[in-house]
């Protein structure tokens, strides 16, 4: 039950934490809005509060044209600056890989001036871009000091600081204690710090989380030599820029977190590594809001009730994911995994790890772009797929195409469709996983159409509208639960 007094306070404060938690219907206009709508707040006596957009529409209110309450929070036009701020944080993390250091370079990636970038970050996050970068570095350093046995010097550089002196000064200024003092409070023995070649960190999530469903999905699609999935963990080789190593991820259910073991060789690119893992395992999802919407459809009711923590698996590497999707066109998942493993073994560099299952790094687009049609066709890949992979590799290697969560789906999907051999299914599948778009829907997917009663792609697109803006999650429930009708 929504308390009108508390909801009205949240409405007038435009607190973003309440976005998606409730909706307000204005009786004087017949319009319903999100609590972050930029219009002037209505009078309290004219407000009715609803737990969902569907409830507001059932009460005969129509959606606001400015805050677009029918869309997922963060996806409406009014949220463009919020989306830019989110992408900026990812680009800051990825900047350690590409050695992008200045704010001017980061702003240029978004086709913004430095002044525009500063204004957006100040509006959305209440800090300057420089303060944002500094805060994120210090938070990572604090976590590393508390949870790992890395030397302080290594932590300073892993967090993105150019020198130990700058790190100590910034840390002491922010936390009013030295890094060594914080480590002493964390009860980590200095003499044991270098005892291992790996460290562990925790990545938190909002419960519930269906870890077994995530592992099952990834296991079926794992690239032999690059990835290994068993009953409790996911492991893979990693190359970020000039740094390579391996990671292993397990669940710590009691703490609502995943535990990441990583080699110290990846410490210089740790922010990017952790960001990619959050995207891969969909750790920023709001399962409560998603389930609240999807459970309204009788078709999905049983699956949502049985698997409330079902996530949409992302992609650790967008190019790797795209090649895997191209190879999966019109063949079974198992056959595509076999071809993908053969591709990775032939074109990926070898790497030594403690795991006999992890032997190769994933092929780089720059390496694949140098291949000929015959090179790739010799792996048993048909010519149409071969030409498509080469065109994809050239676009990714040249920087024209970026396949990650910081990319804009409205621009990236058309760019994908322009490549030879990529149709709507592949583009939507990549939007769903590599671009982390919650409302992607591969309407031509055979399994989806069959599970909806053997309907056409056009009919499936129409049927999916009631799941918007969480259609990617609806697809996961359909794939996971099998025959629904």
Q: What structural class results from the helix and strand content?
A: alpha+beta
Identify the CATH architecture of one domain: Orthogonal Bundle
Number of helices: 23
Low-confidence stretches: 188-195
The helix content, as a percent range, equals 40-55%
Alpha carbon gap, first and last residue: 33 Å
Oligomer: single chain
CATH C-level class of one domain: Mainly Alpha
Walk me through what this model shows.
The protein is an alpha+beta fold. Among the domains are: 4-70, DNA Methylphosphotriester Repair Domain; 205-283 and 315-437, Hypothetical protein, domain 2 (Endonuclease III, domain 1, Orthogonal Bundle), CATH 1.10.340.30. The protein is 48% helix and 10% strand. It has 23 helices and nine strands. The chain has helices at 4-13, 53-58, 80-98, 103-109, 114-125, 129-147, 152-158, 164-175, 179-185, 211-221, 270-280, 287-294, 298-306, 318-327, 333-347, 365-369, 373-377, 383-397, 409-417, 424-433, 446-451, 457-464, 471-481, and strands at 23-26, 31-33, 47-50, 62-63, 198-204, 227-229, 233-240, 243-252, 257-263. The strands form two sheets. Strands 5-9-8-7-6 form a five-stranded antiparallel beta sheet. A four-stranded mixed beta sheet has the order 3-1-2-4. A hairpin with a 3-residue loop joins strand 6 (227-229) and strand 7. The longest helix has 19 residues, at 80-98. The radius of gyration is 24 Å and the shape is globular. Mean pLDDT is 88; it is low at 188-195.
């Amino acid at each position: 039950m929504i308390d009108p007094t508390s909801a009205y306070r949240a409405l007038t404060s435009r607190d973003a934490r309440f976005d998606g938690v409730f909706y307000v219907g204005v009786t004087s206009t017949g319009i319903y809005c999100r609590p972050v709508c930029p219009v002037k707040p209505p009078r309290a006596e004219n407000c009715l509060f609803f737990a969902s957009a569907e409830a507001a529409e059932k009460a005969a209110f129509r959606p606001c044209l400015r805050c677009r309450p029918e869309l997922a929070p963060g996806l409406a036009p009014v949220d463009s600056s919020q989306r830019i701020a989110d992408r900026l944080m990812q680009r800051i993390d990825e900047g350690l890989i590409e050695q992008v250091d200045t704010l001017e370079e980061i702003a240029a990636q978004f086709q913004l001036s430095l002044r525009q970038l500063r204004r957006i970050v100040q509006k959305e996050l209440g800090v300057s871009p420089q303060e944002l970068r500094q805060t994120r570095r210090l938070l990572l350093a604090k976590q590393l000091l508390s949870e790992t046995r890395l030397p302080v010097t290594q932590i300073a550089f892993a967090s993105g600081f150019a020198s130990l002196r700058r790190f100590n000064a910034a840390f002491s200024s922010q936390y009013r204690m030295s890094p060594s003092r914080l480590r002493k409070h964390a009860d980590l023995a200095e003499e044991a710090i270098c005892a291992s070649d790996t460290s562990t960190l925790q990545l938190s999530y909002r419960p519930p989380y269906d870890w077994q469903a995530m592992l099952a999905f990834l296991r079926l699609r794992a690239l032999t030599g690059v990835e290994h999935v068993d009953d409790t963990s996911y492991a893979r080789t990693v190359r970020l820029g000039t740094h390579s190593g391996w990671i292993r991820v397990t669940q710590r259910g009691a703490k609502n977190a995943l535990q990441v073991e990583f080699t110290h060789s990846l410490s210089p690119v740790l922010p990017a590594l952790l960001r990619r893992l959050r995207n891969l395992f969909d750790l920023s999802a709001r399962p409560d809001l998603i389930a609240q919407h999807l459970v309204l459809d009788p078709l999905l009711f049983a699956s949502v009730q049985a698997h409330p923590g079902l996530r949409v698996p992302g992609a650790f590497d967008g190019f790797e994911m795209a090649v895997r999707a191209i190879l999966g066109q019109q063949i079974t998942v198992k056959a595509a995994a076999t071809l993908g493993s053969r591709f990775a073994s032939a074109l990926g560099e070898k790497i030594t790890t403690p795991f006999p299952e992890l032997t190769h790094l994933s092929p780089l687009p720059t390496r694949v772009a140098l291949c000929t049609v015959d090179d790739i066709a010799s792996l048993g890949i048909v010519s149409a797929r071969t030409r498509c992979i080469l065109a994809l590799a050239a676009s990714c290697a040249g920087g024209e195409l970026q396949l990650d969560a910081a990319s804009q789906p409205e621009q990236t999907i058309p760019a994908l469709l322009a490549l030879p051999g990529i149709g709507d299914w592949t583009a939507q599948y990549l939007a769903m996983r590599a671009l982390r778009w919650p409302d992607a829907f591969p309407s031509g997917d055979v399994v989806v159409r069959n599970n909806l009663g053997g309907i056409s792609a056009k009919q499936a697109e129409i049927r999916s509208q009631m799941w918007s803006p969480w259609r990617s999650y609806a697809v996961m429930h359909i794939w996971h639960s099998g025959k629904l009708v």
